[in-house]
Amino acid sequence: MQKRIKAYIKLMRPEHYIKNFLLALPAFFAGNMFAVNTLVWLVFGFLAFSFAASTVYILNDIKDVEKDRQHEVKKNRPIASGLVSCQEAALLGALLFFLSQAIVFFMVHNLFHPANILLILYLLINILYSFGLKNKPILDVMILATGFVLRVLFGGLIIDCIVSQWLCLTIMMFSLYMGLGKRRNELRKLSGENTREVLAFYSESFLNGTMLMSKTLGVMFYSLWSALVVSKNNYMIWTVPLVLAILMKYELDIEGDSFGDPVEVLLSDKVLFLLAVLYVIAVMWIELG
């Protein structure tokens, strides 16, 4: 019984919930993240988005079960390994979706609230991704990056906070950089395997070039945003070198023996994680100090 419960939890991919901390960015940079009401709404929003994301992960695992069984790492996922049946996974996904909607309704008392429309949009885009768009070059990584931007916008809507367009562009570019890096490493490690069709359309030189483009634009947008928009003083611009250090350490990691999954890279590298924590502390000191 305990083994099955662990399999269900693993199927939800709770380690990927770290992505949903992006919901807190609007409140964090607005300087009101630690107000009690804001924290409560952020916790509920985090749970709602996390359950919705788990629904997407489960649907994707059901759709790709046969390909996952041929993959070096994904063959150990609960459905691919046979620990959880497709029917059980579908029931869990449906339950998580309804829980997500119930939380949103509790928060805003309206399922047609803009925040929930964004959440449904996230689900629809990712359903289309699972059922074919992930095999379309460029569109596949654009969808992944859009998911990160939707998280930030959702976080702004649930606390009624305006989200800077510069922040959205920054998140989009850095997300593209990480998504392209993942594709590049998959291309290196899965060459000749039939586990991700879209890799046939990519070359390593193309992915390296677009990674560089996305990273450069991300740093430029972040620099403009930190200098012109977010900071109440002139100190925020000095976080740019720290952001560069984080990017360099991240790139050093994915140049090694890695599939390039951003969550796995962050959680497996203590130095990178420490740099991320230092960045959070620096911003808190600047914005709240």
List the helices and strands and how they pair.
Layout: H1 2-12, H2 25-30, H3 36-63, H4 65-68, H5 78-81, H6 86-108, H7 114-130, H8 139-158, H9 165-189, H10 204-230, H11 240-254, H12 262-268, H13 270-288
Helix pairs in contact: 3-6, 3-7, 3-8, 7-8, 8-9, 9-10, 10-11, 11-13
Summary?
With 289 residues, this protein is mainly alpha-helical. It has two domains: 1-163, Tetracycline Repressor, domain 2, CATH 1.10.357.140; 164-288. It has helices at 2-12, 25-30, 36-63, 65-68, 78-81, 86-108, 114-130, 139-158, 165-189, 204-230, 240-254, 262-268, 270-288.
Give a written overview of the molecule:
The chain is mainly α and 289 residues long. It folds into 2 domains: 163 residues, Tetracycline Repressor, domain 2 (Orthogonal Bundle), CATH 1.10.357.140; 125 residues. Helix content is 71%, strand content 0%. It is built from 13 helices and no strands. Helix 9 runs antiparallel to helix 10. The chain is globular and about 55 Å long. The termini are far apart. The mean pLDDT is 89.
Q: What CATH architecture of the largest domain would you give?
A: Orthogonal Bundle
**Level of helix content?**
over 70%
**What count of domains describes the coordinates?**
2
Strand content: under 5%
The string of secondary-structure elements, in order, is HHHHHHHHHHHHH
Number of helices: 13
The tally of beta strands, per DSSP, is 0
Low-confidence stretches: none
- Classified by CATH, the class of the largest domain is Mainly Alpha
Rg, nearest Å: 19 Å
Counting helices, strands and paired strands, the structural category is mainly alpha
Main sheet, how many strands, which sense, barrel?
none
Average per-residue pLDDT, rounded, comes to 89
Topology-level CATH name of the largest domain: Tetracycline Repressor, domain 2
Inertia-based shape = globular
Please, what is the CATH homologous superfamily of the largest domain? Answer: UbiA prenyltransferase
Distance N to C terminus: 50 Å
